[in-house]
Amino acid sequence: MRVLVAEDHAELADSVARVLHREGMAVDVALDGRAALDRTAVTDYDVVVLDRDLPGVHGDDVCRALVAGPGRRTRVLMLTASGTIADRVEGLSLGADDYLPKPFAYAELVARIRALGRRAQPALPPILEHGDLRLDPAQRLATRSGLRLALSPKELAVLEYLLAAGGRVVSAEELLERVWDEAADPFTTTVKATINRLRAKLGSPPVIETVPKSGYRI
């Protein structure tokens, strides 16, 4: 899942980003409204966690721009220091998909982001399966033949994306775009190295196929 955290409080933004990274999400951070609009113009985010009181371009205007975008698939989770009913109603009326007042529990934030992420794409089953391979995205748990696999957050994210593709060939460029964040170097062998580690941990018979000059599929 690719997430943008648009929050002007740098410490809070970094804290949220660290939590989401641990959950296997690819996370970018914008500290003002203009930066948020610039990033959403070039990256197709699944979810934008949007502080309503952003400087520069107000969070309300950022929300309106995201909602008005053609072929919109990005979901907006609005954050605000005000938790009144009237404020929530106003935020949702702007087009936000969900609304969470500050302070919030990180566990709830993660759960809401995951729920919105499922709505940003065709509906997927709660458990992704291929033969004896099973992945529970909510629990971040992968098993094969009933045995738990010791996968890193990034390996879990790659496996989830490939399973969700349903046999479609996924290019290295697409994996880099959807599973890594903007800090990833597109000229490195990051994707290939992660795939190789994942293959080794999944064991035999192999389930990840390399399609020459195209990418990978399960």
UniProtKB/TrEMBL annotation:
Domain annotation Response regulatory: ranges: 2-117
Residues recorded with modification 4-aspartylphosphate: 51
TM annotation in the entry: none
UniProt DNA-binding region: 125-218
Keyword terms of this UniProt record: DNA-binding, Phosphoprotein
Source organism superkingdom: Bacteria
Entries under PROSITE patterns matching the protein: OMPR_PHOB (PS51755), RESPONSE_REGULATORY (PS50110)
A Pfam cross-reference name: Response_reg
OmpR/PhoB-type domain boundaries: 125-218
SUPFAM superfamilies attached to this UniProt entry: CheY-like
Protein's recorded name: Response regulator transcription factor
Organism name: Actinomadura rugatobispora
Origin organism lineage: Bacteria, Bacillati, Actinomycetota, Actinomycetes, Streptosporangiales
